Amino acid sequence: MPGSLRYNAAKMLTIIKPVVEKGLQPVARLLKNVNPNTISLLGLVFPVLFFILVMKGHYAWALAGFIFIGVDLLDGLVARAANKVTAFGGFLDSTIDRFADFTVISVFGFAGIARWSIVVPLLLLSFLISYIRSRTELAAKNKLVAAVGLIERTERMMIVFIGLLLFMFFKSFHLWGFNIAELSLLLLSILSAYTVAQRIMFAYQKL
Question: I need a surface site. Which of 30, 40, 109, 199 has the fewest CB within 10 A?
Answer without folding.
Answer: 30
